[in-house]
């Protein structure tokens, strides 16, 4: 699979440099790693307003149930690994670092991410995919959202954190939106019947 490299806006890069010190010494090993690592755009998938996930043909930024979640910077070097999130508290507010983590979950996610380029997606040919992060707090899970650059080829998703859908043969293998939305619909039905489940949270990397 061919992956594109996301372009981080200058305002976000400047916010990282200006506010990382609120969480970690920028010249420490962890701080230096984070300042020089790659980043992926983060989106939040909301359950509100969707009556039937099987009727959602695709998802994309700008839809009512897709919220912009900022940027996640993460990387690893030898035995050192870490991540930070740069976001806005409210739309239009200044960008800033809102969290830092050196949890082993970061390393696990990076290992799965590094394997993506070696995965083959059926019938994708030479199409490139833009890697994104999709957070689904009501499931709860996080997945790599592989956004196809050719709309004739569907987006695919690879779960890397949280609770993978039951009966998924291999959570680290990509699945199409058509299959993924079926799992989301099943989970949404469970939450609707048992509202208390909606409050359950997993140990996601950064909130």
Structure description:
This protein has 207 residues and is α+β, with helices and mostly antiparallel strands. It has one domain. Helix content is 22%, strand content 30%. It contains four helices and nine strands; from the N terminus they run βααββββαββββα. It has helices at 10-19, 29-35, 104-115, 177-193; strands at 2-3, 38-45, 66-77, 80-87, 96-101, 128-136, 141-148, 156-162, 175-176. Strands 1, 2, 3, 4, 5, 6, 7, 8 and 9 form a nine-stranded mixed beta sheet that branches. The protein is globular and about 50 Å long. The protein starts with a strand and ends in a 14-residue tail after the last helix.
Key terms:
207 residues, alpha+beta, nine-stranded mixed beta sheet, 4 helices, globular
The rough form would be described as: globular
Q: How many individual helices?
A: 4
Helix content: 10-25%
What is the mean predicted local confidence, pLDDT?
89
Radius of gyration over all CA atoms, rounded: 17 Å
Distance between the termini: 29 Å
The largest β sheet comes out as:
9 strands, mixed
Strand content: 25-35%
Topology:
Elements: E1 2-3, H1 10-19, H2 29-35, E2 38-45, E3 66-77, E4 80-87, E5 96-101, H3 104-115, E6 128-136, E7 141-148, E8 156-162, E9 175-176, H4 177-193
Parallel strand pairs: 1-6, 2-6
Antiparallel strand pairs: 2-3, 3-4, 4-5, 6-7, 7-8, 8-9
Short description:
This protein has one domain (2-199).
